[in-house]
Amino acid sequence: MKYLHGSSNQDTNEIEKAITDISTKLAASTSEKHTSEEEEASLWKRLGKLLLDAGEYAEASRIFRKGAERCPTDESLQHHLKVYNAFHIDNETCETTEDLPPLDVTNMSKDIFLTLDVPPEAIPEEVIQIAKRKSEHVDVQELSKLLHASKEPILSKVACKYIINAAEKATAIKGWTKDRHLQAPTCDIPAFDLENEVVHWLKDAMRNCLFPLLAKAFPKAMNIDHEKLRIQDMFVVRYDADNENRRQGFKYLKPHEDESIISLTIALNDMTDYDGGGLFIASTGDLLNGDAGTVLGFAGKIVHGGYPVERGTRWILMKTHRAKRVGMF
Ligand SMILES: O=C(O)CCC(=O)C(=O)O
Ligand SMILES: [Fe+2]
Questions:
Q1: Which end of the chain is more exposed for a tag (fewer CB within 10 A), N or C?
Q2: How does DSSP assign 76-127, residue by residue?
Q3: Atom 8 of ligand 1: nearest residue by CA position
Q4: Any idea which of 110-114, 165-169, 218-222, 232-236 has the lowest mean pLDDT?
Q5: Residue 106: which pLDDT band, with cuts at 50, 70 and 90?
């Protein structure tokens, strides 16, 4: 087995040993009748997480899906399967019942992102390790370019409204989820719970428009190839000020790291709709925000949070990505 992110030989050996250990336990538990589904699910999840740590994303995904198949009552394994089915299965067809709003990017070749640096000490270890794989010499100046804000909207206001409406329509039936992200709980609805045609439209929009733009914006040393970026999770988040009537959303999101290589937020409503709010970057103290349709892309492992909303509702579409490892060995 080859590893992308083993930070030292010792770490790599430990991960490899743990993977072998859990694989053996799993082999035993799948043949033993007395292992409970809960115990087995926990083994699949531990193995999947270890493979993620080792940079074996495709294999981790296969393990999570296998676990979901074997443990139909485990919510987080089922969640993984739903994300996979919604965004990674290419050849299904979708009946579109209404005209979907167009994307607004007029000239994809122009430099659409404004890039901000993080201080060298805030460059995540994961990013440094990827760069070291490419070259022994790491250019810290280049590698610190990990925050990107679009200078203009990438989605039209009609498209943003369309996504908010789809989220409101779906949550009127299914409700909001508030406990999917244990480290950083948001009030959200996963994109796969929106209507099918919305999911397809979003998937196309991301693949054809946002991925190429984003991949170009990040440091070359991060080796981000847009064709190899995979959506890890995508959800619509609402933040509501404390004093809102019928308040649903949380007021803020505490500083945290995402599990992703790249994270992205798209503002879905204008800043005049609320006071406060925005993406807070702990290492620089920057508060980044924009009107409907603007995009913020950042390395997921940079510590960030959602700034408190003091009036009204802030809506964003949040998306996290992993890069499928290809061509590195
Ligand atoms: O509110 C924001 O802009 C950040 C959201 C976020 O970091 C998350 O959902 O993980
Ligand atoms: Fe986050």
A1: C
A2: HHHHHHHHHHHHH--S------SPPPPB--S-TTS--EEEE---GGGS-HHH
A3: 318
A4: 110-114
A5: very low
Q: Are residues 220 and 256 in the same domain?
A: yes
Task: Give the number of whichever ligand sits closest to the CA of residue 280.
Answer: 1
Whether residues 182 and 244 share a domain: the answer is yes
Strand stretches in the chain, DSSP E? 113-116, 147-150, 188-190, 229-240, 253-256, 262-267, 274-276, 279-281, 287-288, 295-299, 304-306, 309-323
| CB 258 near ligand 1, within 6 Å | yes
23 membership: H or E segment, kind and range = helix 9-31
- Residue with the larger pLDDT of the pair 110 and 144: 144
- 240 belongs to a structural domain: yes
How far is it, in rounded angstroms, from Cα 253 to Cα 329? 38
Q: Is the pLDDT of residue 120 over 90?
A: yes
CATH of the domain at 33: 1.25.40
pLDDT at 105 over 80: no
What Rg do the C-alpha atoms of the chain give, in angstroms? Answer: 20
Choose which residue among 176, 189, 259, 263 to substitute to test ligand 1 binding: the one with the highest number of ligand atoms within 8 A of its C-beta. 263
> Does 316 sit in the ligand 1 pocket, CB within 6 Å?
yes
Range of the domain at 307: 113-323
Domain count, the chain: 2
Q: Which residue has the tokens 């802030």?
A: 314
Q: Is 186 in the pocket of ligand 1 (CB under 6 A)?
A: yes
Distance (Å) from CA 59 to ligand 1 centroid: 27
Q: Indicate if the pLDDT at residue 315 is higher than 60.
A: yes
The CB of 100 under 6 Å from ligand 1? The reply is: no
Q: How many CB atoms lie within 10 A of CB 224?
A: 20
Task: Answer whether residue 98 is part of any domain.
Answer: no
Asked whether residue 159 falls in the same domain as residue 277, the answer is yes
Domain containing residue 262: CATH number: 2.60.120.620
